[in-house]
Fold this sequence. Notes:
By secondary structure, the chain is mostly helical. The protein has a domain at 43-155: Serine Threonine Protein Phosphatase 5, Tetratricopeptide repeat. It has helices at residues 37-51, 55-68, 73-85, 89-101, 107-119, 123-136, 141-153, 157-170, 175-187, 191-204, 209-221, 225-238, 244-258, and strands at residues 8-9, 12-13. It has a two-stranded antiparallel ribbon with strand order 1-2.
Amino acid sequence: xxxYLLLVAAPLVFTAAACGTLDRxxxxxDKVPPPAPxxxxxxxxxxxxxxxxxxxxxxxxxxxxxxxxxxxxxxxxNRGIAHIQARRFDLALVDFAEAIxxxxxxxxxxxxxxxxxxxxxxxxNAVDCYLKSLDKDRDQAGTLNNLGNAYASDGRFAEAxxxxxxxxxxxxxxxxxxxxxxTMLEMQKRPAEAAAAYERALAIAPDHPDxxxxxxxxxxxxxxxxxxxxxxxxxxxxxxxxxxxxxxxxSRISSLQRH
Length: 259
């Protein structure tokens, strides 16, 4: 599971969408002139470096593309995505602003810009960008999911709940929306509804670690210790060996078993 922009409101865990949608297209000819050969070659090389997750190399190639053709909106946009991956958020903001100015003001650009603001915990800005993205194309699972997370991180739980319900209506076979809905219901002190949402997430994806984590802790708080411990053990088993959270939960399991 991709945990980029994982938004945690302890002890609950949200599932976040992946960041960055790479644009491989060339600029529209009615907006800017066709790219010079050098710009086009550098742009393609940058995309190849992105495929290899070589963010700094990709940035250098996009630098060359922009130097050769400053009107190449897609190079600005893709360099912004590379800057997100390199966690250079201030530079990503500059690149996306320039891409929008050059006409790349589509749903994907606003989605990525929203991800930058979310990474910087600038929730109002993130919400604004996600809403602009959805105005252009409402059928975007990742954008809806991240919008709900942004509302939740800003303490706007009722609005987050509404977004996650829309997500679940649109994508009923995806588990992350039900897990996230559960967190919103739990934050609003509606544990029975939250448990049902977590259980729905696990029915869709039995190996969804966040749903095991959230439901496990809820069951422990409800006094259903055996069930909660079993769920938390499954969370630990599904987590990577280096997971700090999994080690903390393993310690909690040991403590629960001693009492």
